[in-house]
Design goal:
About 55% of the residues lie in helices and about 10% in strands. By secondary structure, it is an alpha/beta fold. This is BglG family transcription antiterminator.
Length: about 650
């Protein structure tokens, strides 16, 4: 039993907030239902007598103490992950090295077990500019102080849940003697306040990550392990922010940071968590911008706008994104990536927006040579989503007619109340004041009526003459139901055109053994675990002349950029570029689930789009992912879809509700 799987179980239940059966959770984690019951017992033991996971006839769901259980140090301090972190921490704290036999005795393991742990440490050091040396009984880390801090940051993120700041987890990484919450609470609040007073917008998602780096700096400086001063003279903005950090660190943390640390931390603040305020004119913001970066972003945004038919090619969007990319380039130079706790939810809830962000990231990587992990792509997705939200808010409005028999100005008062309370959901385009209206002639999306209709209908909502909270909830529910039914109706029409009977594979788990071997080699630059599945599904579309081998290779490259597991059950691999001869979808079913990215999936849909179906991309992509975000629907399809006909029947039944 591993803490990592217990944490993943807790994370799934906290995120969904619904009941889930042991079988469903077992599929998500790739274990047996009996293991799920063991994980539940262990998770509850962390917070006893509290309840981390509730049990009931419907299965399991997150309890009141689920979040506390995720943060709890736990009683499993001897787990491999905990032992690995303790070993790395000991190596970082001892410049001259540690005696491996003495350390093995301290953590109560055999020398052979510790040798295996040292091998895992070497695996962690890939790309860190650090090396692990072993001489007789002594093991030591060699590398720069900055490289050692990056390793500490990596361990801290591994301890934290979903990238969010957790001081208890940070102290487990740095050691219980590091700076505590009593000091960091005021420090963070004062830092945010002073940055705001200086005219900056503060990115609260990123500030926690910077505070983590400040904690690491304070801990290392207290051990006389400060950074050396860098040669370049800091810019005025860096000097100003460094002065704030210096003053707050002395006052709240009791630490005197050197010039090198202050310059480094000021750079992190400028490149991660602040942006010019509204009062900063566009000319002033552009003066800080590298013209080459602005030109690259402008070209990439224009291409993405045309490729996906999305309205993002606006000057304000290009300028803000270019400033973000410039900061991103600076982070890449220092390998100081910024974590984003919203990455998973953005990917599963807004797959189309995330896909546009992946396209932009891929193009920027080619133009500027910036490698972008998922968390950085998620920040680009937030920029894209903000722009699209402004563009498409009006498209989400449903039209409505109010039926309210005339009595003085009662119908006008009701219309005013509807506009005020429901203006973001519906647009009132007509008011019918007759007591016997022609119901059949009313063709708006919704009918809000104070009298009983001649014939009930899903689009007719009975409301009171004086709008109540219950009325508002009923109208919002009806509006949501209509929007969903229309989306899924469009999806059903599109999918029935694109599915291919000859492109259906059941039994993807049979590919799991070679995939596992591929996963072992992926860390060393070999093939990824997803490749065998993509190639197997791709071969079915190649046989039908839909795509060629190049498309399959590009789909694998796209997968390496960012996992296409958009939900806990569905992966949608595809290539960047709509180059198929016609649009088609190959479906693979895995029962039990198979590894994909950082999680596991049960349905894999290899999608190939043609240039002529560019407009259908958004419909198919977003709504297909929406269907497979519902756990019960996934289980129904996976269990009953024994062949292509069965799959299509079950999918249509799920869509039709």
């Amino acid at each position: 039993m591993t803490r990592a799987r217990q944490d993943r179980l807790l994370g799934l239940l906290v995120r969904d907030g619904e009941w889930a059966t042991a079988a469903t959770l077992a599929d998500a984690l790739g274990v047996t239902p009996r293991s799920i019951r063991s994980y539940v017992t262990a998770a509850n033991a962390r917070v006893a007598p509290g309840v981390a996971i509730e049990s009931g006839p419907q299965g399991y769901r997150a309890g009141a103490d689920a979040s506390a259980a995720l943060r709890a140090p736990g009683m499993d301090a001897g787990t491999p992950r905990d032992r690995l972190h303790r070993l790395v921490r000991a190596l970082l704290d001892a410049p001259e090295g540690i005696d491996v036999f003495e350390f093995a005795d301290r953590v109560h393991v055999s020398p052979a077990t510790l040798d295996a742990d040292l091998a895992r440490v070497r695996g962690l050091l890939g790309g860190t500019e650090l090396t692990l040396e072993r001489s007789a009984s002594t093991a030591r880390l060699r590398g720069t102080e900055m490289a050692q801090r990056r390793l500490l940051s990596r361990l801290a993120h591994d301890e934290m849940d979903a990238g969010s700041f957790d001081l208890a987890a940070l102290r487990r990484t740095l050691g219980e003697d590091s700076v505590g919450a009593a000091a960091f609470g005021p420090f963070k609040a004062d830092l945010v306040s002073e940055l705001g007073a200086m005219g900056y917008f503060v990115n609260e998602i990123g500030i926690a990550d910077v505070v983590m780096h400040i904690a690491i700096a304070a801990d290392r400086v207290s051990q006389d392990r400060g950074l050396e001063a860098s040669a370049p003279d800091p810019r005025p903005a860096q000097q100003e922010i460094a002065g704030v950090i210096d003053r707050l660190a002395r006052r709240d943390l009791g630490v005197e940071l050197g010039t090198g640390d202050l310059h480094h931390l000021a750079t992190l603040v400028l490149t991660r968590v602040v942006a010019p305020g509204d009062e900063a004119p566009a000319e002033q913001a552009r003066a800080r911008l590298d013209p080459g970066i602005e030109a690259a972003v402008r070209d990439v945004v224009g291409t993405a706008s045309a490729e996906f038919l999305v309205d993002i090619a606006h000057e304000d969007f290009i300028l803000r994104l270019a400033l973000h990319v410039q900061n991103l380039q600076l982070r890449a130079q220092e390998q100081a990536w910024s974590r984003n706790p919203l990455t998973r939810s953005l990917k599963s809830t807004y797959p189309m927006i995330f896909e546009v962000a992946v396209f932009i990231a891929s193009s920027l990587q080619e133009r500027l040579g910036i490698p972008l992990p998922d968390d950085e792509i998620a920040y680009i997705a937030m920029h894209v989503g903000g722009r699209l939200e402004r563009s498409r808010r009006a498209d989400q409005l449903l039209t409505a007619t109010i039926v309210c028999p005339g009595y003085y100005d009662l119908h006008e008062l009701l219309r005013s109340s509807v506009d005020r309370s429901l203006g973001q959901a519906v647009e009132v385009v007509g008011v019918e004041t007759r007591v016997d209206p022609d119901w059949d002639s009313i063709d708006t999306d919704l009918v809000l009526t104070t009298i009983d209709p001649a014939t009930p209908s899903d689009r007719i909502v009975r409301i009171q003459p004086f709008l109540t909270d219950s009325d508002i909830e009923r109208v919002q529910t009806a509006a949501g139901r209509i929007r969903r039914s229309r989306r899924l109706a469009r999806l059903r029409t599109e999918l029935e055109r694109y599915f291919e009977a000859g492109a259906f594979l059941r039994g993807l788990a049979d590919l799991d053994a070679p995939a596992s071997r591929a996963a072992d080699g992926a860390a060393a630059g070999g093939p990824s675990a997803e490749e065998p599945v993509i190639r197997a599904l791709g071969s079915t579309l190649i046989a039908q002349g839909v795509i060629d081998e190049d498309y399959v290779e590009r789909a694998i490259e796209r997968e390496r950029l960012s996992s296409t597991a958009f939900t806990d059950a569905l992966a949608v691999p595809h290539a960047i570029g709509m180059t198929a001869t016609r649009t088609a979808i190959a479906i693979g079913i895995a029962d039990p689930s198979i590894p994909w990215g950082d999680g596991r999936v049960q349905v894999v849909a290899l999608v190939a789009f043609s240039e002529t179906d560019r407009e259908a991309f958004q419909t198919v992509f977003e709504q297909f992912v929406e269907v497979f975000s519902e756990r019960d629907s996934v289980q129904r399809i996976v269990r009953r879809a024994t062949d292509f006909g069965g799959f299509l029947d079950e999918l249509v039944a799920v869509i039709d509700g």
